[in-house]
Every structure is written in C-alpha cells, then in structure tokens.
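Priority: low. Protein: Alpha/beta fold hydrolase. Input follows.
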Amino acid sequence: MGTVLVEGRRVPVMDSGGGARVPVMVALHGTFGRGAVFKRLARDLSGLVRVIAPDQRGHGWSEPVSDGYGREAFVADAAALIRALGTGPVVLYGHSLGGITAYQVAARHPELVSALIVEDVGPVMRRPEVPHPTLDVRGWPRRAGTRAELSELIERRGVPDPSYFLRSAVPDEDGWRMLLDWDVMMEVQRGGVGDWSADWRGSSCPALLLRGEESTLLPAALADRMVAERPGTERVDFPGAGHWVHDDAPVALAGAVTAFLRDHGLLRTAPSAGGA
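Result:
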C-alpha cells in the first residue's frame, strides 16, 4: 500500500505501477471492501493498465472523517483523488457501491473520466427492484483472539463465507481486529439506497457493465434497462458468478476489461498475456 496526498489528507492506495506508458484505471471498491480487493485484477492487467485503488472513507486504513458517509462525500473524494493524480482523465472502475460512485463521478465530472466500468450494481438500490439492498451488520464482532475465531463469529451471523469481510481483518497485540466499524458500514449502506437513474444516464463516455448471473444485487431486467437507457453501454454477463465477479471469474473479467479498453483505443501498449 502507498498513499496519495489529496487536499491535505493522505489516502491509502493500492498502486500497481507502470508509469506514464500505460493508462490509469482508478478502481473503487464496494461496501466492506478496500483497495487491496483489486490485487488480482491489477495483476491480470499488468503492462496494460496502471490500477490505483484507494481505501475509501470508512474502509481499510483510511483516515477518520467528520463529514459523514453520504453519496456526495464519496463522489467528492473520488473526484479529488483523480485530480490529485494529475494524469488527466482516467478509466473509472467501480464495484457495487463503488460502481454507483463511479457513474456519479462520470455524470458530474465528465472531464475526469475517459471510460466507465461498472461491476454488478444498477441505477436503483432499493426494494422492490433489489430485494436486499443492505446487509444488517449492527453488533457484528469487531475483534477476536485469532483470525479463525473472528471468521467463526461472523459465520454465526448468517454469512456462509466471511472471506470478503476478513480482508479487512488485521492482527494486533490482542489478536485480530476488523478495520471496519459496523455502525459506519450501516451509514455507508444507507447512503447508497435510492434511485440514481439520472446519474447513470448522465454521462456519455464509453461504458462497460459487468454482471454476475448469480447475483441478487443486479437482476437481469435491471441490467437490460441500464443498457437500453444509456447509449454507448456494453454488457458482459458471467455465468456462475455472484456479486463479486472479480473474485468469482477473474480471468474472464480481466479479458472483458481488456477487450473493452482495446476496442475504444484506451490501451497505449501492445497487449501482453494476463495472469491466469
């Protein structure tokens, strides 16, 4: 992990490097995530794209904030980071809640975004379109003696596979603790509930929509609507993949991203073999 100084605040980032010879892709994680969730994608795109993935407010090693966790704050943070990078417009990638932030940045700051990639999130995050737009994590465990114990405590909350959450678990002098504050996570999720259709339709750059066929957060009908409502949107579905497509189908996802960027003239170097 490195840091980028953004308006006087140090933002932790995963930076795959690559220098000026490759285009920059800023990748925004979803709720409960951190920049490091994109390590595999960054490796698979090595030599083609420089992936910069921040720990967004309330997540990972990000600094505490006093101005809340609403939509405007996340959008302002992402726009400020892109400006601070000084690379010109970037490819903006977002997963889940990070995808909402990504298409909101593209709509409100079009000069900062050359292309938009949205992973498994739609323009509407509310019932009935999305059966479960939030996950109740109030009272979840914040620490345990071992990582295995922490995993078991989260499993008891009805999560069959806590591995995604445990990416935000770190060792300390008393055992293992979560970098996440569960009350903050509730506020983050509530800030994402709503109808953001105007923002989805509000940009004109090339867009790629990535959908896990087994995901409940982006039903097929809603994905159909997204493509129909926004010209210039391409869509790729991933059989057998759930909401975390970058984990469930990493090779296929990297291939789809590479093809999209190549087709739109956004790769400045010859393609090389990605990781398998």
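The chain has two domains: 2-132+185-263, 143-180. The domain at 2-132+185-263 is CATH 3.40.50.1820 (Rossmann fold).
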